[in-house]
Design a protein that fits this description.
It is built from ten helices and no strands. It has 255 residues and is mainly α. The longest helix has 41 residues, at 212-252.
C-alpha cells in the first residue's frame, strides 16, 4: 500500500495543474492580506475564496485523475494486491497532495499574517474541505463509468453545496416561518460541509453580523466552543462516509 501511495504522490506532485493551483492560492492569499490593514478582514476574505475554490479544484482534479488513471488501476487490480489497498492508496495520495497544495499556497501566508488559533482553524477548514471533496469526487467517479458524466456529477455536486443548498434553506425558512424549525434548520445545515466550514471559522472570529441564520443557531444552541467541536466532528464524518461508500463500490466493481 505504501509503495502505491508513494507512486501516486510522486505522480501528482509533478502535475502542472496542482502546481498552478498552489501558486494561485499563494498569490490570492498574499494579495488579500497585503491589501487589508486588519488581519481579521483578511481571514474573512480568504474564507470566501476557500469556500469556492478549494471544493471546486479538489472535486475536478480528483475526478479527472481517477479517470486518467483507469489503466493504471486495472493493472494494479490484476496484481495480487487488495482492492481496498489500491483505493485507499489513491485516496491518501490525492488527499495528501491537495492538502499540501492548500497548506503551501494559503496556509503559510495565513500563519504569517494571522499567527493565532484563528489562522490554524482556517487552515484546518481548508484541509478538511480538500479531504471531503476529494472523497466525494472519488465516490462520483466510481459510480460513473463515463468520464464526462463523472466530471459533470462532480461539478453539479459542487454547485449544489456552494449555491443551491443555501437557496433551499432560505426557501424552507420562508415557507415554514410560522413554525419552530430552528432545530430542523440546524440539522439541515450539517448536511452541507461548506456551510459547516464557514460556521466553524465565524464562530472562532465571533463575527455575529456575518454568521447568517445557521451560524447564529449554532452559537445560540451550542455556544462557540461546543459549536466548533461539533462542526469538526461532522466534517470528519463528511470525508469518512463518502470514502467508505466509494471503497465498498470499488471492491465489487467490474472493471
Amino acid at each position: 500500500m505504501m509503495r502505491i501511495t508513494k507512486y501516486v504522490l510522486a505522480d501528482i506532485l509533478r502535475n502542472k495543474t496542482l502546481i498552478v493551483y498552489t501558486i494561485l492560492l499563494f498569490l490570492l492569499s498574499f494579495s488579500v492580506f497585503s491589501l487589508e490593514d486588519n488581519p481579521t478582514k483578511g481571514v474573512l476574505s480568504i474564507l470566501n475564496l476557500l469556500l469556492i475554490i478549494v471544493p471546486l479544484i479538489s472535486s475536478i482534479f480528483t475526478t479527472i485523475y481517477i479517470y486518467n488513471s483507469s489503466e493504471f488501476i486495472e493493472l494494479l487490480v490484476s496484481q495480487p494486491v487488495k482492492r481496498s489497498s489500491i483505493w485507499m492508496s489513491l485516496y491518501f495520495g490525492l488527499a495528501t497532495s491537495l492538502s499540501l497544495a492548500f497548506i503551501i499556497g494559503a496556509g503559510i501566508i495565513t500563519i504569517i499574517y494571522q499567527p493565532d488559533s484563528t489562522g490554524i482553524f482556517l487552515i484546518l477548514s481548508g484541509v478538511l474541505l480538500s479531504l471531503i471533496f476529494c472523497s466525494i469526487a472519488m465516490l462520483t467517479s466510481v459510480y460513473n463509468r463515463d468520464k464526462a458524466k463523472g466530471i459533470g456529477a462532480s461539478i453539479l455536486t459542487w454547485l449544489y453545496f456552494s449555491l443551491l443548498f443555501d437557496g433551499i434553506l432560505v426557501f424552507l425558512l420562508f415557507q415554514f416561518s410560522d413554525y419552530p424549525i430552528e432545530k430542523a434548520m440546524m440539522t439541515l445545515s450539517m448536511l452541507n460541509p461548506i456551510d459547516l466550514a464557514r460556521i466553524l471559522i465565524l464562530l472562532k472570529l465571533d463575527v455575529s453580523a456575518l454568521m447568517g441564520y445557521t451560524g447564529a443557531l449554532f452559537r445560540s444552541f451550542f455556544g462557540n466552543s461546543l459549536g466548533q467541536t461539533i462542526s469538526f466532528l461532522v466534517l470528519a464524518i463528511w470525508f469518512l462516509f463518502p470514502f467508505l461508500l466509494s471503497l465498498r463500490k470499488f471492491k465489487h466493481k467490474d472493471l
